[in-house]
Design goal:
Subunit structure: Efficient DNA binding requires dimerization with another bHLH protein. Binds DNA as a heterodimer with MAD1, MAD4, MNT, WBSCR14 and MLXIP. Can also bind DNA as a homodimer.
Keywords: Activator, Coiled coil, Cytoplasm, DNA-binding, Nucleus, Phosphoprotein, Repressor, Transcription, Transcription regulation
Order of helices and strands: HHHHHHH
Pfam families: HLH
Subcellular location: Cytoplasm; Nucleus
Distance between the termini: 159 Å
Number of helices: 7
Main location: cytoplasm
Shape: elongated
């Protein structure tokens, strides 16, 4: 607002008019500039953060594949079909899957072996208990079993029975043809393997063996 008597041509009035115009306020221009700069720097920071996060993700994946190639034995074996070419990620994953499946099979096999060994140990424990009972029974009755015969005598009885049966079998069987052989075998069984006949053979073998022992 001009003072009374002031002329519009007065230079001080022009300056006052210039500073009173809002469109020419220098503070407003600086504010707009700083706001625009802030927006651009925020976008840059977001872009930089996204780039860093993506790089970290890529590095983590690469370290994972490197660790797999170090841990999985088949990844360390040279594949002559590839030459000196580096293993691709797909091959590393496939070899890892194959190795895990192999480990599962080995684990199952070892579990079966452990189960078998446990059964064997249990059987041995039972045998140990039985033998301890036998030893204890023998210690309590030292004269018991003195008349027990040996396994050799048992075998001699079986051999004597078989020898007697074979003699009759050899004398009765014809080998002129397979049909005749079959017919003779059935006839021999009906005649020489009757309970009474077998009983007589066994009695004869036992009597003969008893005479040899005593």
């Amino acid at each position: 607002m001009t003072e009374p008597g002031a002329s519009p041509e007065d230079p001080w009035v022009k300056v006052e008019y210039a500073y009173s115009d809002n469109s020419l306020d220098p503070d407003d221009e600086d504010s707009d500039y700083h706001q625009e700069s802030y927006k651009e720097s925020y976008k840059d920071r977001r872009r930089r953060a996204h780039t860093q996060a993506e790089q970290k993700r890529r590095d983590a994946i690469k370290r994972g594949y490197d660790d797999l190639q170090t841990i999985v034995p088949t990844c360390q074996q040279q594949d002559f079909s590839l030459g000196s070419q580096k293993l691709s990620k797909a091959i590393v994953l496939q070899k890892t899957i194959d190795y895990i499946q192999f480990l599962h099979k080995e684990k199952k096999k070892q579990e079966e072996e452990v189960s078998t060994l446990r059964k064997d140990v249990m059987a041995l424990k039972i045998m140990k208990v039985n033998y301890e009972q036998i030893v204890k029974a023998h210690q309590d009755n030292p004269h018991e079993g003195e008349d027990q015969v040996s396994d050799q005598v048992k075998f001699n009885v079986f051999q004597g029975i078989m020898d007697s049966l074979f003699q009759s079998f050899n004398a009765s069987i014809s080998v002129a043809s397979f049909q005749e052989l079959s017919a003779c075998v059935f006839s021999w069984i009906e005649e020489h393997c009757k309970p009474q006949t077998l009983r007589e053979i066994v009695i004869g073998v036992l009597h003969q063996l008893k005479n040899q022992l005593y």
